[in-house]
Every structure is written in C-alpha cells, then in structure tokens.
Design goal:
Blueprint (H helix, E strand, L loop, with lengths): L4 H24 L11 E8 L2 E2 L3 E7 L6 E5 L5 E3 L1 E2 L11 E9 L21 E5 L3 E8 L8 E7 L3
Parallel strand pairs: 1-9
Antiparallel strand pairs: 1-2, 1-5, 3-4, 3-7, 4-6, 7-8, 9-10
Length: about 160
C-alpha cells in the first residue's frame, strides 16, 4: 500500500506537536525519583504583633525552576510549608525564595497588613532555605510602620 504525500505530511506535523509536548510535560512533572529533596520549614507570622491566622504564606523560588510552596497560617500564627499542589509531602526545596501572603479564598485580608506583602514582587521578603530543618519567624510592621523582622534558625542535620 503506497503512502501518499499528504498522509506523510500529516504524520510529520503530528510528530512535531506530540514530541515537544511530551518533553515539556516530562520536565514539568518530574518523577518522584527526580523530585528535589525537601527541607522542613516551619515558623510563625505576625503583623503588628498579632498572628496572621487565616492567610496563606507563599514561597516562590527566586530562580529558573520556579518551585512554589505554601502553608496556611494558623490562628496562633504558626505555619508549616508544603510543596504547592503536593499535599502528601512536606517541606521546601533548598533555595532562595520570595515570600508573600494571600488571604484564604473565603477569607478577607488582614486590614493591618500592608498590601505590598500580598505580591512577591513588592513584599521585599527574601529567605534562603537550607537543607535539614528551618524555622523562620516573620514579624511584619503593623499600621504604626515599625521595622520588618525576619529571624531564621537552621539545622543542616548530620
């Protein structure tokens, strides 16, 4: 059975679409063995001395990978970070991150929180997550515009 030119063109055009799409999907969703090792990140977030309970704290990698992690800030201000979209895992890939806060879907932003802290480009909060265990405390200024304080303790482990 002879192949027609238009049939060959159709197959080649399909290959030019399918092969790059498969390569991009493979890079976007690495297998668990290729997934980065995660470091435990816990902490506390306050604004003007009051816990930022009900907000999401977000870490956006300041680099080409674009790794994201998030954690719900509890009513006492504590949080625990998980890779975004992977609720079964806990931690953050070691790197440098821009930090920002967003209200829960059903929540309302904290009126004392300066809106600049709701955008990774304007928050000015940058943290370096190392291997092992990390505890990060964010003390953001309230309406009185006091200083922003970030404390970071790390245990790289054995």
């Amino acid at each position: 059975m002879p192949w027609h030119v238009h049939t060959m063109r159709s197959y080649c055009a399909g290959a030019f679409i399918v092969i790059p799409a498969a390569a991009l999907l493979g890079a976007a969703y690495p297998s668990p063995s290729e997934a980065p090792e995660l470091a435990r990140v816990v902490g506390r977030a306050t604004c003007g001395g009051h816990p930022l309970g009900g907000m999401w704290i977000m870490f956006l990698e300041d680099g080409p990978r674009g790794f994201m992690a998030g954690g719900l800030v509890e009513t006492d201000g504590s949080f625990r970070m998980k890779p975004w979209g992977q609720l079964d895992r806990e931690g953050v890939a070691p790197s440098t991150f821009r930090v920002y806060f967003i209200p829960k879907k059903s929540g309302v932003p904290d009126p004392s929180l300066d809106p600049k802290y709701e955008d990774p480009g304007t928050s000015g909060l940058l943290v370096r997550v190392g291997r092992g265990w990390n505890e990060i405390v964010f003390s953001l200024p309230g309406p009185d515009l006091g200083p922003t304080v970030i404390r970071h303790r790390r245990d790289a482990g054995p």
